[in-house]
């Protein structure tokens, strides 16, 4: 059962944090509150009035707004046009842009959310896009705001700005439902914490006096073992090398490019890339996975030119964990077993003379599900039925578990592999990446989470404006130094530490 007799209250001017593992029922509960789903039993009252079930318009009219983890903005429209979208009747003979602009600027000033109404959304940073999503809800009169993983793609600096905005909104009487897997920020911003496990409310406590360990234990049902220290790396031969590599600007975001990049990836080493989202990380990941081409420079895989051919790269032992598991990682309507073998479907292990060897493919998929503890749906179920954490485990298993008789991956490109995952799933994914490193793979980890970068990286490099502005052993970094490098501030000696 997705939700089982859950009762919650939210007061005016209160932040209630909602915690739970992936698949615990948080998204289902919020979808019921926002009118996307109808509950089988129970009722919802908003400001003393009953809320009609299964009706998003009724939820909006009652003052409920929702900012989703995956933004829903149209890149080809301006900020003002995105905010207005859906707020006017289709039968209205003309749009009231002047009034909408005045309303947007009034809301922006009131809640401390500065915005440029005419800026194209495609030109905005991730933090600015999130600001627009929040303004969309406030523009429509939201008095209860649901924030789903609001800091998942923000830098520490952007998160600090968001926390200041939340404090200002709460001071003006807004109520906030705050969904997050990051326990420190939950304890920092919330007044109360509610914990779901397997669809049930298992704890509801004041944030003051609670501890991260206590919340984590309620989430998973048992105490988490202390994380063992990361074993030291034993770098071997160079697996991949970039020499003065550049790419052309992305069609929708000019910053998303590489400029004269030098980087070497060694067997048995995990290199972590830090940086503000949109400074070339996606271009680097796509380049190494064969879906983007270099406009200049040299790109080598074990001394040979790396071809912009994803299928060929899979045969050469390059594995990828893409940034967006929903849009790029899987095809939600395909069954789990097809997604488990999709990137190796041309392999002789799974096809012969153009025909898919279904028995072999399903047997391998069963191994992936078992070895990587993928729960929530069988091999024949549509992949969209999986929770985010289990979907990520499926992608991880597809990348790391080679078919029988084939070698393990030599290069693993992991782009935001723990984005939006709960503490248990994060530990699992990180442990698997370190195990692959220890087995001899070269691992490139691209993450917006500085804690993850410092905890996982043997060597840490920082990207800014498409360039690697600094790279050195993880032990030689501090959070402050990384923050300066992320902002593009040169080090005192101006040196770039290369491998």
Describe what is shown at a glance.
With 499 residues, the chain is an alpha/beta fold.
- Low-pLDDT runs of 5+ residues are 492-499
Sheet having the most strands: 6 strands, mixed
**Number of domains in the coordinates?**
3
User: In the CATH hierarchy, what is the class of the largest domain?
Assistant: Alpha Beta
CATH topology-level fold name of the largest domain: Rossmann fold
Which percent range fits the helix content? 25-40%
Q: Give the name of the CATH architecture of the largest domain.
A: 3-Layer(aba) Sandwich
Number of strands: 20
Q: From the helix content, strand content and strand pairing, which structural class follows?
A: alpha/beta
Order of strands across the main sheet: 4-5-6-1-7-8
Envelope shape: globular
What is the strand content?
Answer: 15-25%
- Distance between the ends: 51 Å
Tell me, rounded to a whole number, the average pLDDT: 87
Radius of gyration: 24 Å
Number of helices: 17
CATH superfamily of the largest domain: P-loop containing nucleotide triphosphate hydrolases
Describe the fold and architecture.
The protein has 499 residues and is α/β, with parallel strands linked by helices. It has 3 domains: 15-220, Rossmann fold (3-Layer(aba) Sandwich); 225-317 and 407-499, P-loop containing nucleotide triphosphate hydrolases (Rossmann fold, 3-Layer(aba) Sandwich), CATH 3.40.50; 335-405, no CATH class. It has helices spanning 26-33, 56-61, 79-84, 97-110, 126-139, 156-171, 183-189, 212-220, 281-288, 310-315, 325-329, 336-341, 358-371, 388-400, 423-438, 450-456, 479-486, and strands at residues 15-20, 45-46, 49-50, 64-67, 144-148, 175-179, 192-197, 200-206, 238-246, 261-266, 270-274, 296-301, 304-305, 318-321, 351-352, 355-356, 411-415, 442-446, 459-464, 467-473. Helix 13 (358-371) packs across helix 14 (388-400).
């Amino acid at each position: 059962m997705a939700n089982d007799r859950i009762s919650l209250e939210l007061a005016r001017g209160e932040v209630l944090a909602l915690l739970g593992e992936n698949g615990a029922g948080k998204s289902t509960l919020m979808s019921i509150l926002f009118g996307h789903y109808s509950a089988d039993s129970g009722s919802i009252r908003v400001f003393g009035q009953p809320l009609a079930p299964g009706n998003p318009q009724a939820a909006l009219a009652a003052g409920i707004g929702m900012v989703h983890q995956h933004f829903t903005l149209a890149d080809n429209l301006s900020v003002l046009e995105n905010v207005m979208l859906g707020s006017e009747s289709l039968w209205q003979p003309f749009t009231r842009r002047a009034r909408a602009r005045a309303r947007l600027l009034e809301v922006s000033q009131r809640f401390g959310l500065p915005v440029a109404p005419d800026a194209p959304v495609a030109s905005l940073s991730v933090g600015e896009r999130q600001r627009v999503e929040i303004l969309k809800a406030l523009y429509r009169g939201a008095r209860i705001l649901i924030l789903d993983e609001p800091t998942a793609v923000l830098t520490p600096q952007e998160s600090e700005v968001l926390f200041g905005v939340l404090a200002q909104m709460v001071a003006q009487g807004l109520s906030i439902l705050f969904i997050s897997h990051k326990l420190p920020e939950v304890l920092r911003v919330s007044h109360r914490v509610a914990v779901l496990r397997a669809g049930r409310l298992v704890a509801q406590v004041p944030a003051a006096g609670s501890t991260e360990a206590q919340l984590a234990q309620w989430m998973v049902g048992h105490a988490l073992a202390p994380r063992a220290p990361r074993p030291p790396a034993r770098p071997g031969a160079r697996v991949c090398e970039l020499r003065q590599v550049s790419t052309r600007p992305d069609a929708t975001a000019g910053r998303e490019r590489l400029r004269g990049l030098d980087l070497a990836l060694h067997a048995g080493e995990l290199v972590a890339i830090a940086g503000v989202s949109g400074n070339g990380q996606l271009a680097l990941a796509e380049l190494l996975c064969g879906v983007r081409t270099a406009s200049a420079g040299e790109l080598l895989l074990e001394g040979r030119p790396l071809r912009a051919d994803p299928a060929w790269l899979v045969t050469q032992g390059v594995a990828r964990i893409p940034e967006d598991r929903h849009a790029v990682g899987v095809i939600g309507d395909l069954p789990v077993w097809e997604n488990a073998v999709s990137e190796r479907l041309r392999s002789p292990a799974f096809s012969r003379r153009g025909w898919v060897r279904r028995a072999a493919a399903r047997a391998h998929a069963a191994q992936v599900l078992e070895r990587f503890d993928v729960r929530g749906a069988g091999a024949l179920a549509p992949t969209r039925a999986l929770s985010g954490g289990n979907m990520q485990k499926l992608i991880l298993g597809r990348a790391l578990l080679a078919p029988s008789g084939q070698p393990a991956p030599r290069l693993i490109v992991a782009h935001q592999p723990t984005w939006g995952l709960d503490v248990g799933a994060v530990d699992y994914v990180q442990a698997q990446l370190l195990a692959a490193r220890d087995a001899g793979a070269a691992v490139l980890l691209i993450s917006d989470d500085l804690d993850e970068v410092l905890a996982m990286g043997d060597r840490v490099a920082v990207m800014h404006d498409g360039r690697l502005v600094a790279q050195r052993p993880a032990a030689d970094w501090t959070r402050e130094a990384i923050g300066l490098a992320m902002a593009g501030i040169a080090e005192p000696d101006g040196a770039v530490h290369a491998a």
